[in-house]
Design brief:
single chain, 406 residues, mainly alpha, Growth Hormone, Chain: A
Length: 406
């Protein structure tokens, strides 16, 4: 049995403390959501269209999707600590670039560079796998992801309040200060955990055909991608709906953007509590049905004339609840298809999931800019959730076929 390594806070000779890992991951989640309430004001400041400004969401996600494929292999070669600190340093410089950007083009370029903070999201989980045996890793990663789930509840509220009182640049000052503090903590606390011998990026590419020809792998990937896609569509269109349809202030927009995160935290808890008992497929199917059913009801109520900010944002809690059940279990399903390619499956699956989310986020922003409202966004999200439900039903059908053939 592998002995759990000694961990001391603020001691670089030992692996990082769980608090450090939570904050590493949380900084990435905060960067994604804190500025959302300020997006309409930023559109006015740069004198551009919402579809252009919305690239701060969809473009950021697209670059993050690409980074999912390379961060792991780079950290295997150069070390978790070095890649983490490098990514955080790039994030801090890019955040300052966002603050002082003279035009929207420079701002968006710096915003894309901010995606380097994804090192925290990726490597916090890799470090856990370095530190403890597999049977303990799932539990420890659960604490990290629960911390990530809490950040989007409060980050938009803080961002909305800062935007309303001090202007949108203050949100990015908040992110810059957070980046400096987290980087300082990682510098003081994060001992190297990589043991070497990890899979290279070239080897990952060689392994892609074996995964991409698996229909079960595609089913799990699509279940996760369409579930998360509904949430990313919400990120892309929610700020526009909050200000232009419901006339919410930046602060109250931030409060409302925390609704899916509340559901996601609950869904994560349900996954941790019941996944072993009921199985991965049952949890994905149930989560997909909850998300789809909640959004379908909200869409029908909106069509009947009951549109309100409370209804729109309140029912988005069901999206978070469903995702909290779908995404962890679909991720486990991806890794189980070809266990010997678990690392490659994780990177490839995450890239598809976030890349698909980027596309839906951009699509939602464009649809709203061209005359859509809250119902348009609800239809996009509901359709995405339905496709996620059909994906897991396909997986179950395919597994039934395989059982009959064996």
């Amino acid at each position: 049995m592998t002995e759990r390594p000694l961990v001391r806070l603020l001691d670089r000779s030992t692996p990082p403390h769980i608090l450090t890992l939570v904050l590493m991951a949380g900084l990435g989640a905060m960067s994604m959501s804190a500025f959302l309430p300020a997006l309409p004001n930023m559109t006015e400041h740069f004198e551009t269209r919402y579809t252009v400004m919305q690239l701060a969401v969809s473009g950021y996600l697209a670059v993050t999707a690409g980074l999912q494929l390379v961060i792991g292999p780079l950290s295997d070669r150069y070390g978790r600590r070095r890649i983490t600190l490098t990514g955080q340093a790039i994030f801090i410089v890019a955040t300052l670039g966002c603050i002082y950007a003279p035009n929207v083009e420079v701002f968006l370029a710096c915003r894309m560079l901010q995606s380097a903070v994804a090192v925290g999201l990726v490597l916090s989980r890799a470090i856990v796998r370095d530190m403890v045996p597999q049977n303990e890793a799932a539990s420890m990663i659960g604490y990290v992801t629960m911390g990530m789930a809490l950040v989007p509840m409060v980050a938009p509220m803080i961002g909305g309040a800062l935007d309303q009182v001090f202007g949108w640049q203050s949100v990015f000052w908040f992110l810059a200060v957070g980046g400096v503090l987290v980087m300082a903590l990682c510098w003081a606390d994060q001992g190297e955990t990589a043991k070497g011998g990890g899979i290279s990026f070239a080897q990952q590419i060689k392994d892609y055909p074996e995964l991409l020809t698996s229909r079960r792998f595609w089913g799990y990937v699509m279940a996760a991608a369409f579930a998360s896609g509904a949430f990313f569509a919400f990120l892309g269109g929610g700020p526009f709906v909050a200000q232009n349809e419901f006339n919410l202030s930046s602060f109250w927009s931030g409060v409302c953007f925390g609704a899916p995160a509340v559901g996601y935290a609950l869904g994560n808890y349900i996954s941790g509590r019941f996944s072993v008992r009921f199985g991965v497929n049952w949890m994905i199917r149930t989560g997909a049905m909850i998300g789809f059913g909640g959004l379908l009801l909200a869409t029908l109520l909106t069509a009947l004339g009951f549109s309100s900010a409370f209804l729109f944002f309140g029912f988005c809690t069901f999206v978070g609840l469903g995702n909290g059940m779908v995404i962890p279990n679909a991720s486990a399903g991806m890794l189980s298809v070809r266990p010997h390619l678990a690392g490659t499956a994780s990177g490839l699956g995450s890239a598809f999931m976030i890349g698909g989310g980027a596309a839906l986020s951009a699509f939602a922003g464009a649809a709203l800019q061209n005359g859509g409202g809250s119902m348009t966004l609800q239809i996009i999200m509901t359709t995405s959730l339905l496709l996620g439900l059909l994906s897991v039903l396909y997986v179950e059908w395919r597994e039934g076929q395989l059982r009959k053939a064996s």
